[in-house]
Design goal:
The complex is a heterodimer of chains A (425) and B (118).
Chain A (H helix, E strand, L loop, with lengths): L1 E6 L3 H12 L5 E4 L15 E3 L8 E2 H13 L4 E3 L3 E6 L7 E7 L3 E12 L3 E3 L2 H4 L9 E3 H11 L6 E5 L3 H12 L3 E7 L8 H8 L6 E3 L1 E7 L6 E6 L12 E4 L2 E4 L3 E3 L2 H5 L4 E2 L4 E2 L12 E3 L10 H21 L7 E7 L3 E5 L2 E4 L6 E7 L6 E6 L5 E7 L8 E5 L1 H5 L5 E7 L3
Parallel strand pairs in A: 1-2, 1-8, 2-5, 8-21, 10-17, 11-12, 11-17, 12-13, 22-29
Antiparallel strand pairs in A: 3-4, 6-7, 7-8, 9-18, 14-15, 15-16, 19-20, 22-24, 23-25, 25-28, 26-27, 26-29
Helix pairs in contact in A: 1-2, 1-8, 5-6
Chain B lengths: L1 E4 L8 E5 L5 E3 L4 H12 L2 E2 L2 E7 L5 E6 L3 E2 L3 H9 L2 E3 L7 E3 L9 E3 L8
Parallel strand pairs in B: 5-8
Antiparallel strand pairs in B: 1-2, 2-3, 4-7, 5-6, 6-10, 9-10
The chains are: A alpha/beta (425), B alpha+beta (118).
């Protein structure tokens, strides 16, 4: 029997497994469906990873390489080319089961004390956002195009329109341009970009690629391959405004319209979900509603920086080790729920368990609009201000993070509400 | 006075650079931001990341990058140099693929190891 099975060998799974090993676990298995470790980082060949973590600007493969090297120095076992099919939670202290399949071992039923969910996320597709028009070839999610180009070595098109201004779309705008394609436009439904500002600058402005905010694709035409795309401006209600149509002659449409945590296994195990994040609900130590099952990384909530994924996953790895070593979940004196107030779309964790030792709790969240100067205000159930954090620029594309002081938590009444207060400049 | 968004890190500081006053930078949160503001207006540079052809490896393309920033105006010429490369696996991580790329003093290096296909 394993002490810990980590599902997913991307940045989250690697960091979680390494930390659990360092914390003393010795029977750890990582299950990865690809033929190598590293996850999506392997196709993210651009630089900008690791500034927080390593104080260096690394490419995706280099960042993954650091953690793969770390893992190889441990005795953590890895099964590649292996698909986890189902998690059957053990009841009343019985071990959890992970069902997995691969070409060598066949169908395996693996028993383990703890499980870490680190499956990552997948891209929203054309079907998810219902773009009208014909259905020719040449429409890709940005990440699929990135894999074709950077790993498989296929150029996906020559004249490109990108829908959505998420980071992968912006990165692909630059990448396609450098490879000789003409990127005609990046089109964003919202009045702001959901990507990092630095990517707007170094991927679009550097190459004079126009960004159309408050616009969307309203028609795609083409018999076999994409031939034309119609772009329209949208009003404050996000509906297209007739008469604003622009037509682009292009052969390719890339979609960068959001990521969805990949939680089929989580839901199958009966773990409580949070509709705001599309991920599991977790406590401050990344434990889900089922004792001994933890979640971290993009399967929990979509991050914009891998550095934060690594840090979060290390917390999950440490907590899983503590769970296995104690033989039970941490006893809690009382539980504080976190609620999103004005200007905040979600919080992770959703609940904080206060044990005998007072600890600072790290909370991650996103805001729902751009603000220039703001305060993050935390209030308890009685309306008492528990903490206040000053911030400069806030944007939905950039995940925010606060550390709630232990003392403030001890005296607070549940639930705590986190809200944004705009500060006049 | 010129306004810029710093691209050194994800923070994206809004910089103001005074060209008439020795390219003095304000709005930066770290020394690297000041450095970025100064070079961006005088000789803008970027790190180039791309892929090169590799035969016999686990994948058909090897990710590469320049080991330091090169002049922005040379990016497309550098892409043409990278397109001429044809390697055979195995390749070590950090291996120099093109030394002194276009006389910039920067080397094009492998971003990962490329083992021989199993």
């Amino acid at each position: 029997m394993y002490e810990l099975i980590v599902i997913g060998g991307g940045p989250a799974g690697l960091a979680a497994a390494c930390r659990a090993w360092d914390a003393g676990l010795r029977r750890i298995l990582v299950i990865e469906r690809d033929r190598e470790l590293g996850g999506i980082l392997n196709q993210c060949i651009h630089n900008g990873f690791g500034l927080q973590r390593f104080k260096e600007e690394l490419t995706g493969p280099e960042y993954a390489g650091r953690f793969i090297t770390m893992l190889q120095k441990t005795g953590v076992q890895v099964q590649l080319d292996t698909m986890a099919l189902q998690i059957v939670p053990g009841r009343d202290g019985a071990p959890h089961q992970v069902h997995a399949i691969n070409g060598q071992e066949g169908y395996q039923v693996l028993e383990t004390r703890a499980v870490i969910l680190a499956m990552g996320c997948r891209e929203r597709t054309r079907g998810a956002i219902s773009i009208p028009g014909e259905r020719p070839a040449g429409i890709f999610t940005a990440g699929a195009a990135q894999r074709y180009l950077n790993i498989e070595g296929y150029m996906v098109g020559r004249r490109v329109v990108i829908l959505g201004s998420g980071d992968i779309g912006l990165i692909m705008a630059r990448r396609m341009t450098l490879e000789g394609a003409k990127v005609l436009a990046c089109v964003e439904l919202m009045p702001y970009s959901s990507g990092l500002t630095r990517n707007i600058v170094q991927c679009l402005q550097d190459y004079d690629i126009p960004l159309y905010l408050s616009h969307t694709i309203t028609d795609i035409r083409g018999h076999n391959r994409v031939e034309q795309v119609t772009v329209s401006e949208v009003g404050p209600d996000r509906c297209p405004i007739p008469g604003t149509e622009m037509v682009f002659d292009c052969d390719t449409v890339l979609l960068s319209v959001g990521l969805i945590p990949e939680n089929e296994l989580t839901k199958g195990a009966g773990i409580a979900m949070d509709p705001r994040t599309s991920g599991a609900q977790v406590y401050e130590n990344m434990e889900t509603s089922i004792p001994g099952i933890f979640a971290c990384g993009n399967v929990l909530h979509v991050h914009d920086l891998v550095d934060y994924v690594s840090a979060e996953s290390e917390r999950a790895g440490a907590a899983a080790a503590a769970y296995v070593q104690a033989g039970q979940e941490e006893p809690a004196d009382h539980i504080i729920a976190l609620k999103n107030g004005e200007g905040v779309t979600y919080t992770v964790p959703q609940q904080i368990r206060l044990g005998t030792q007072a600890r600072t709790a790290e909370v991650f969240f996103r805001v729902n609009r751009v603000t220039k100067a703001a305060a993050i205000v935390v209030e308890d159930a009685d309306g008492k201000e528990t903490a206040r954090f000053k911030r400069g620029h806030l944007a939905p594309g950039e995940m925010e993070h606060i550390a709630l002081p232990a003392a403030a938590l001890q005296s607070a009444s549940s639930p705590l509400t986190i809200r944004i207060e705009e500060v006049p400049q | 006075m010129k306004e810029l968004v710093c691209i050194v890190c994800p923070r994206g500081c809004r910089l103001t650079v005074d060209e008439d006053n020795g390219y003095a930078v304000t709005g930066n949160s770290c020394p690297r931001g000041a450095e970025y503001g100064r070079t961006e207006l005088q000789n803008p540079t970027r790190v180039l990341t791309t892929t090169v052809k590799v035969a016999g490896g686990m994948h058909r393309r090897l990710p590469v990058r320049t080991n330091r920033a090169i002049p922005k105006g040379l990016l497309l010429a550098a892409m043409e140099e990278a397109a001429k490369v044809s390697l055979t696996a195995p390749v070590e991580a950090g291996q120099v693929i093109i030394p002194d790329l276009l006389g910039t003093g920067a080397d094009l290096i492998a971003s990962r190891a490329m083992p021989v296909a199993p």
